[in-house]
Each structure stands twice: as C-alpha cells, then as structure tokens.
Amino acid sequence: MSRPAPKGHRNVWSLIRPCLLALLGLLFSAGLAYAQNRVQGDTQIPSLDSLLGDNGGAVSGRIIQMVMVLTVLSIAPGLLIMVTSFTRFVIALSFLRSGLGLSSTPANLVLISLSLFMTFYVMGPTFDKAWTEGVRPLTERKITEEEAFTKISEPFREFMLSQVRPKDLRLFADIAAATGRPSKNDPETAAQNNSAPATSPNRDQNAQPERQIELRILIPAFMISELRRGFEIGFLIILPFLIIDMIVATLVMSMGMMMMSPAALALPFKILFFVLIDGWNILVSGLVRSFF
C-alpha cells in the first residue's frame, strides 16, 4: 500500500509546476515564430553559401579574415609580452616580491594587473597611432589587409627600435645569416640611428633602412633587451633588502640566537623600510620613466 506524498513535497511541486508550464509555453511560442519566419523567408541565420565563393565552392576572403582574427585573439597574450613594455614591468615587480621575502603577497593577479595598466600607459601613444593609421582605415575599407598590417606594425617597430640594444640585434642578425636567411640591412646600424636625436642628419638619411628590419630579428632582440633591463632594475630593487637581511643576520648571530630565523626577523623591517620611503611611488615612477 503506497503512502501519500508528504505535505512539503506537494508544496514544492505546486511551485515548480507553473514554472515548467510557462517554460514549455515559451518554447512552443518560439518554435511557432521560427517556423513562420522560415515560411516567409525571413530568417536571420546566414547560409553557408554566403561564406563561399562562386568558383566551385572556393573559400572566400571572409573565411580567411575570420581565421586570421581567431588566430590573433589566440596569440594576443604572447603578442602583449613580445612587443610591449610588459616584460620589464612584471620582472621588476617579481624581484620586489622576492626581495621583500613574501612568497604570495602581492598576489600574481595584483602584479600582472599593475603591469598591464602601466603597459597601457607607456604604450598609449603607440596604440593610438596603430589604431588611427591601421585599424580604423581597415574597418572603413580604405586600405587592404596588407597595408593595414604594415601600418599597424610600424608604431610597434619604432617603439622596439627605441628600446632594443644594438648588440642584441646583431646577435639575431648573425643567427639569421648562419641559417641562410640574412637580413636585408644592418640592424645594429639601424638601432644606433634610431637612438640618435631626431634632428641628426644621419637619422634622416637612414630612416628607410630602419623600417626594413625584419620582425623575426627585431622581436626576439627586443625581448632579450627587456629581460636584461628588467634584471638590472631588479638588482637595484633587491640590493637594499639584502643589506637589511645581512644586518639582521649579523645581529642575530652576535646575540647568540641560533634558533631564530634571520629572514623572519628581517621581514617586518623590510616592509617598514619600503613603506616609509614610499616605495610603490618610487618604483612605478622609475619604471615608467625608464621608457622616456
């Protein structure tokens, strides 16, 4: 003999049943509306024929553009690291955390977010120029994709040339020559000309060769230069904290406190020192000014 359902279950079912009926009604109404649109020929879903060409189903330029956009979006984080100032910022902030002796404070999300906003500040003129001269004319169909790529990459090329070391450019130019693909010009001379004053006649005469440096040589050279500068700044950041560690360790040893960890005692002093000198202001200001 079956028992009647509890009163609580009946109350829950009485609340759920109207919701299910309303959902079924909405689905039925949507199906009728879609069927009516199909009958009238007013469908909003584009057919595959609009994406294909007329010559035997050849892939049209729209599909190629879609694939290119998806590819760029997938490698966007790598592009951010390769051609912007992000590398120098995140390395310097990582050295700061190591110097303070903090393993997870500030968190990685905080350091990366701060590095991103500093990157947007430094790269603002470059982004604006790339958008104005490349992206906007492309969206307005005033230039072709090839011209847009050249105009978009040109501001980033100028930025990287202003920061790269000639020695690093020479390294990758020699590697390219050893692999049988020499560069079109002397990248070391181009970098030296780019670092010269804008009023220099030598810079004006060599402006064209600068733009011809291949990105496969310029981008890795720029990354190595940024890594070097990031480590140089990191050494300057970590040096005062190292001195504090040495002083605290000497005091601990002289007092015979062998079981006490010098790092644990030095941590509050390092944090206090960094706060008293307004370390965040000095660090961020120095990192941003290093690009100008």
TrEMBL record:
Signal peptide: 1-35
Domain of life: Bacteria
InterPro entries reported in the protein's UniProt record: FliP, T3SS_IM_P
Gene Ontology cellular-component annotations: bacterial-type flagellum basal body; plasma membrane
Localisation: Bacterial flagellum basal body; Cell membrane
Region Disordered, residue ranges: 179-208
GO-annotated biological processes: bacterial-type flagellum organization; protein secretion
Compositionally biased region (Polar residues): 190-208
Membrane topology (UniProt): Multi-pass membrane protein
Name listed for the protein in its UniProt record: Flagellar biosynthetic protein FliP
Keyword Transmembrane: yes
Residue stretches spanning the membrane: 63-96, 108-127, 233-253, 265-288
Family from the record: Belongs to the FliP/MopC/SpaP family.
Keyword line: Bacterial flagellum, Bacterial flagellum biogenesis, Bacterial flagellum protein export, Cell membrane, Cell projection, Cilium, Flagellum, Membrane, Protein transport, Signal, Transmembrane, Transmembrane helix, Transport
Classification via Pfam families: FliP
Main localization, broad class: other
Organism: Azorhizobium caulinodans (strain ATCC 43989 / DSM 5975 / JCM 20966 / LMG 6465 / NBRC 14845 / NCIMB 13405 / ORS 571)
